[in-house]
Write a structure and sequence with these properties.
With 385 residues, the chain is α+β, with helices and mostly antiparallel strands. The protein contains 14 helices and twelve strands.
Length: 385
Amino acid sequence: MTQLALLRSTLLRRKARTVFTLLSILVAFVLYGYLSAIDLAFSLGVDVSGVDRLIVQNKVSLIQPLPIAYGPRIEQIQGVVSTTHMNWFGGIYQDTKNFFPQFAVQSESFLDMYTEYVVPPEQRTAWAANRTGALVGRKTAERYGFKVGDRIPIQGTFFRKRDGSSTWEFTIDGIYKGDRAGVDETNFIFHYEYLDEASIGGAGLVGWYVVRVDDPERSAAVAKAIDAGFENSPFESRTTTEKAFAQSFANQLGDIGAILRAVMTAVFFTILLVSGNTMAQSVRERTSELGVLKTIGFTDGRILGLVLAESMLLALVGGGAGLALSWLAIKFGGDPTSGFLAVFIFPVRDLVSGFGYVLLLGLAAGAIPSLRARRLTIAEALRRL
């Protein structure tokens, strides 16, 4: 009988236990996949932030504005390649529960700054020519059924129009997609000029600037130079990398993300412990059989390898199936919150790490039983017949 045939007969000896052990491992790694996706979602795209982009905001707080006149001054600083500016709008579409991010942007430079936002050329041209036009991310468009040409009313919660109305109407001129996994496809983007001309108060003020530098290694020096240029002014600035800026938002949701991660991590490791104990129990029940194998010539090393191979096979089949199933569910099932999470993918690095955890599970669950089986004497084993 070959080693593989012996493994197969051992695993099929108690079919129900083998099936339930495989299922428990599978569930554990499905949870691992969703845990990884949730962890990335609550980082709010920190990992895909531009390494060559800086954020210039008011030193007091992000909700405090900066003058639009700062743009040309920032562009004069050595190391700065280009700038654009953005405003948070924070409106409501139909109902308060219908949340998606809305930004008023400097349209002529925004898409050049964020090249990861892919817009068809004809849609980009139409948006540039329409003062009340908007671009919407693919995920938000799918969530609400938005199509190019739709007229969308959004109720302003902070910005009101000069005619006293709080209703802002936009025409969707384009739908953008990310050029890679992890790019936020939930944003609603419109022209700053529309906001600046039609709103009451706040004229000539922007929320923050995005700055592209020529050398990411000199980001700290450029940031220091920008802030030095506005020291002791009514609008002092604080400049950080885009990654640090995104991380500050992620930290605001950190408690929610930490709770979800803690719960899923506890469930994950509990299932792994149960699975490991089940595999160890399976080996202990076959002590006498191992003694028979040693009697007919199986060496200690071969016995060790046989028990360890059984543990590894269970872990690889169950864990591999769990990782594959979670990847398929996340890729084709999408965000279980129906668009609340801006990014919901199974990161490749975590998928690779998952296979490492599968191997680690197989080794950890089989290490002690296999060593005991190796040290088992024929006399001791046969006494249990």
